[in-house]
Design goal:
2 domains, four-stranded antiparallel β-sheet, 9 strands, GvpL/GvpF
Length: 280
């Protein structure tokens, strides 16, 4: 029988309520908690044949496997968000045994506690702002309406100028919306613009950001966002969340390099998410 490794979803402080009985993690496993020195890791027992370093790296090249595993990882973190403030670890953080998990909690204890203190009661909201329509190349002149070369170039310059002006206006709107949201949030992370070929979204992504907001102020934050979006009809505004504060915890919640399946270059639990689906 294959040996079992410890897949770690997140670090939390101890909480009183049990994990939902129906909750399933990666590979259909049942998550549970492992307590050490006032902190706990939320983990699952997973087969070494799939989650040791080499097979895990191979699996991460399989988009279907990666997508299903990322959704399961996300489901556990979402469940934790309803119970406590979790520090999500990156997708594919695996240790050989319970003792390895305890060492991770001990070695990272001071950082974990500082981050938990900073993020307690906070959630992450993702906001994307895009141009309303995809950019289109200027149409070719109709064969039934011939024009001179000079007229054709003049028409093309006019069309290009109009598109550039519209894009500049949209960028100013996105900047103004971001500035207003940033003033209302406690912290902000700017992510790389989404590639429309990968996201399937139309238009150009002008803003891809995460905002750290106290849970008690989330309703007011969303009301502000709705007012701002309604006042800017020339751009498309999308919001996702509330999420565990991936973008604000990852730099302190990443597992040490002795994790058995550490895949720091393959998947990441923050922002556009990456490994764990975004907050897309």
């Amino acid at each position: 029988m294959s040996a079992e490794l410890r897949y770690v979803y997140a670090v939390t402080r101890p909480f009183d309520e049990p994990l939902p009985a129906e909750l399933r993690g990666v590979d259909g496993t049942v998550p549970h908690t492992l307590l050490h020195d006032g902190l706990q890791a939320v983990i699952s027992l997973v087969p070494e044949a799939d989650f040791a370093e080499e097979p895990l790296r191979a699996h991460l090249e399989d988009l279907d496997w990666l997508s299903g595993t990322a959704r399961a990882h996300q489901a556990v973190v979402d469940a934790l968000t309803r119970l406590t403030c979790p520090l999500p670890l990156r997708l594919g953080t695996v240790y050989r045994d319970d003792e390895g998990v305890r060492r991770m909690l001990a070695d990272g204890g001071p950082r974990f506690r500082r981050t938990l203190d900073r993020l307690e009661g906070r959630v992450e909201w993702g906001v994307k702002v895009s141009t309303e329509r995809p950019e289109e190349p200027p149409p070719e002149p109709s064969a039934s309406a011939p024009v001179s070369g000079r007229d054709y170039l003049r028409r093309r310059r006019s069309q290009v100028t109009a598109r550039e002006s519209a894009l500049a206006d949209a960028e100013r709107l996105a900047d103004a919306l971001h500035a207003a949201l940033a003033r209302d949030a406690e912290d902000v992370r700017l992510h790389r613009p989404q590639n429309p070929k990968l996201s399937g979204a139309s238009g150009r992504n002008l803003l891809n950001a995460s905002y750290l907001v106290p849970g008690a102020r989330s309703e007011a934050f969303l009301e502000l966002l709705e007012r701002l979006a309604a006042s800017e009809p020339d751009v498309r505004v999308e919001v996702t969340g509330p999420w565990a504060p991936y973008s604000f915890a990852a730099e302190t919640a990443d597992a040490p390099a002795d994790a058995a399946g550490d895949t720091s270059d393959d998947a990441d639990a923050s922002g556009d998410g990456a490994g764990v689906p975004e907050p897309t």
